[in-house]
Design goal:
The protein is 73% helix and 1% strand. The mean pLDDT is 78. 51% of the residues are buried. The termini are far apart. It has one domain. Helix 9 crosses helix 18. It contains 22 helices and two strands. The protein has a two-stranded antiparallel sheet with strand order 1-2. A hairpin with a 6-residue loop joins strand 1 and strand 2. With 500 residues, it is mostly helical.
Length: 500
């Protein structure tokens, strides 16, 4: 135990490593806040720069960017309704309505505190329960990952609008967009219509920026004459009473984030949605309805997506399996520096495991410091007159879409989806399920195909396993219940049970 603690504090007592973690966390917050500049992109670029560095130096910088970037996406989600990252989509549901009420400062303060709390829960789970959670993650079959992806789309469809039917249509449209390009298993063309530029598919960043950024800018044109909303920034740090009030929900949402984050290839976006769904179903008397500025709608997803960071490191360090796209890059970095992530890492090089845990812990402390600074300047974005703000949003959207692949084609897609999203808003369709459908399309598509192949292409065997595997049965029942919950029969049964 003493030896483990020594490894844990290596980065704490080396001024250079402390500096790298601080710089990485600060940079991650503002990279994550800019739509189009993803944490995955930043960490992947860093590998080439840190190739000749000492392994500890490289890992500290990447850990800081990862931790800061996951949180940073909430800033623009709250202020502009443009999630800086997919994991912040759920945050925008209640964060942006709070900004419209002039409470952006308090909203960012709450999201910061709860993100830090969720981060600590994830790190504690990584240190204490890594082997146990990894074993649970290995029980997931391809069909379970497919069901988990469908569940994520249904949750957002049912949570972000009054009509589940419109949510399902939006999610299905996202899945369709996500299948454009070359088939990941056979490399055959799908929905490309012979156009070479579509072989690589449609960038989900272009879709996300277009649907959230450009469509919002177009919608705001109708309100040019409205005065800018003055933000109340006298209180940024939440009161102790407020923290105590939401502490229990934050811990529960963080537990969801750890478990979902530990599932290979899933990530914090589904964790945030599931936590948001949990909060909506368990909060009996919110001060305001969810979707209208409920603070519980900030606490749950922000706790969960940061807790998912620690969860994502669990399969990476103990099994050599990436928990998400960023930890997949971490695996590459560890291999480059001569390390072998997986079961033998804990035996042959336990110091690396505890070093990573210590670096994550320190990065989370810096997240608290940097997350609560600069808010007064950041909130001034909302107070900019719309005649200036709308062109600024359009400019940032163009830069963000182009920066992903340095492709003008992505800019065209972004503008097209912006106009499309504007008309969808007019007709009451939610945009979140479309973006999530594009993001999860690969997860659902590949695992559906793998599940069918593993059952020797027998649909009977596939559906039979859905009912005989306890884990698959729970996920299937959840999907079915969400669908049935929107039918008149379900409402009749619920009213009958209440009368009984």
């Amino acid at each position: 135990m003493t030896e483990a603690l020594g490894y844990f504090f290596i980065s704490w007592f080396d001024p250079w490593l402390v500096f790298l973690i601080a710089v990485g966390t600060f940079a991650g917050i503002y990279i994550g806040a800019i739509p189009g500049l993803s944490v995955t992109m930043a960490v992947s670029i860093l590998i080439s720069f840190t190739f000749a560095w000492e392994v500890n130096d490289a890992l500290c910088l990447m850990v800081g960017i990862f931790m800061g970037g996951v949180y940073g996406g909430s800033r623009t989600a709250i202020l502009l309704n443009i999630p800086g990252a997919p994991s912040a989509i759920a945050t925008a549901l209640d964060g942006y309505p709070l900004a419209l009420k002039g409470e952006a400062g308090e909203a960012i303060g709450i999201s910061t505190i709860m993100s830090v709390l969720g981060g600590f829960v994830g790190i504690f789970a990584l240190a204490a329960f890594a082997p146990v959670i990894s074993d649970f993650a290995l029980t997931f079959q391809p069909r379970d990952f497919m069901l988990l992806g469908l569940l994520g789309i249904l949750l957002l469809g049912s949570l972000s609008g009054e009509s589940l039917a419109k949510g399902i249509v939006a999610g299905a449209l996202g899945l369709l967009i996500g299948t454009v390009g070359l088939d990941p298993l056979t490399a055959e063309e799908r929905f490309t219509f012979g156009i070479t530029e579509l072989w690589s598919g449609i960038s989900f960043i272009a879709v996300m920026i277009g649907l959230f950024g450009v469509s919002e800018a177009l919608a705001q044109i109708h309100h040019l004459d409205l005065p800018a909303i003055k933000q109340k920034i006298d209180r940024i740090v939440p009161s102790w009473e407020s923290i105590k009030k939401y502490f229990g929900l934050s811990l529960q949402a963080s537990g969801i984030g750890v478990i979902i984050g530990a599932l290979p290839g899933v990530g914090g976006d589904i964790a945030a949605l599931m936590a948001y769904d949990y909060a909506k179903r368990t909060t009996k008397n919110p001060e305001v309805p969810f979707g209208k500025g409920a603070k519980e709608g900030l606490v749950a997803p922000e706790s969960a997506n940061n807790a998912a960071v620690g969860g994502a490191f669990i399969p990476m360090l103990t099994l050599g399996i990436p928990g998400d796209a960023v930890t997949a890059i971490f695996i590459g970095a560890l291999f480059i520096h001569g390390l072998n992530p997986g079961p033998m890492l804990m035996i042959e090089q336990p110091h690396m495991f505890w070093f990573m845990v210590g670096a994550l812990f320190l990065a989370n402390i810096f997240l608290l410091i940097f997350g609560l600074t600069g808010i007064k300047i950041f909130t001034k974005i909302v107070e900019i007159p719309k005649g200036i703000l709308i062109p600024l949003i359009m400019l940032l959207s163009v830069v963000g879409a182009y920066a992903v692949n340095n492709s003008i084609t992505d800019v065209y897609w972004m503008l097209g989806f912006g106009v499309f999203g504007y008309f969808l808003k007019i007709y009451g369709y939610q945009l979140g399920p479309i973006v999530l459908g594009v993001i999860l399309s690969r997860l659902i598509d590949e695992n559906w195909r793998r599940a069918i192949i593993s059952e020797q292409e027998s649909l009977g065997a596939f559906f039979g396993n859905l009912l005989t595997s306890p884990l698959s049965l729970v996920l299937t029942a959840t999907v079915v219940l969400i669908l049935l919950s929107q039918t008149p029969v379900f409402g009749w049964v619920r009213r009958s049970l209440k009368r009984g």
